[in-house]
Amino acid sequence: MSNAGDKVLAIKAKDWRASNGKSNVTSNSEICSLCDLDSLRLAGASAFANAAVRAGSVFAKFFVGSVNFYCVDVTNETPENNAINRTRGKCFPITTFRRLIAHTRLTFLFTISGAELLADAARDGSEDAHHVLAVMHFNGSGGLRKDKDPEAGAALCVRGNILFNSVAAKRELGHCLQDGFGVERDAVLGKKLLQEAAAIDQANGVGMDVAVVAASAAAAEVEEVLRKRNDINTLTKAIDAAAQVAAAAKTAASKHLTKTSTQKFLLDWYGECGNLLLPGTTLCSHPLCGRVETRRHEFRRCSCCGRVRYCSRSCQSADWRLQHKFACLPLLELYGWAESDTDSMDDETPGMPVGTPGVDA
Ligand SMILES: [Zn+2]
Ligand SMILES: [Zn+2]
Questions:
Q1: Which ligand is nearest to the CA of 353?
Q2: 167-199: per-residue pLDDT in tens?
Q3: Distance CA 341, CA 168 (A)
Q4: Looking at residues 121-141, what average pLDDT do you find?
């Protein structure tokens, strides 16, 4: 159990609460899921995963931490559950997280069990946990808008790049450097990191570039058919046409990309299992991501169309290349909306350039 990894813990969202078939937290789990004694009362797959956490599996800490943070904690943000979360936070030593990022201001994280587990996994050397913690810092996830800490997020990416030669960290940091987000702007170094990330992906057979080519080909085919019809002359028709093109691109791209077990769990939790998002919140628009907003307007919107939201710059860049440029640009071209400023209402940082030369890896 202490070595349980991705394959052992490929748990389905619908099995998480196997005892009663409910995916949401039951009265049994209104207790700390991190203490040995209490977690024995959890049922099914979640008990299995928590046992792996107790056995010391680093991957289990990352997986259960992600599930708790983005599914269980988030969907239980009622006043009573906030009280429960506060007690949960006391079960793990705060110093765990303090040791990891000494200068962080995110004290709110200590009240949420998922965040504690992720911090523990990062301390134990989980590359994935470094990345998700960076994204949480960028967004102030689990806290308020004022809890955003781009510098701490970028510092985690620097650490991930140095310790693990992490592709995700290189990509995130590359975008931060290009945008001057959390670090001093350095477009050249940013581009270099993005190229490094793309080269590692290619060497590992990750089909991002192949997926982009397939998506573009599929989009061009549908676009050609629509153009021949020559009747896209209203805003509604343009949006509809763009959606069709983007859908074709998404379908073609998905054949070349695979979700991790964690991404699959998060997507299923809010998808096929029908767990409701908090009112006014949304999933990251990258089709493979699965992260959700923990408060309204947490994620940044596409600054061109404002119709999609992303948890991170790397998710936005990837989704842009795979599908969103087909759904976003036609509107701009048709109606000259390129100047409209619909950046995140939740953010005062400079708008995230979409599809700007140099953004794509
Ligand atoms: Zn857009
Ligand atoms: Zn995302």
A1: 1
A2: 999 999 999 999 999 999 999 999 999 999 999
A3: 28
A4: 95
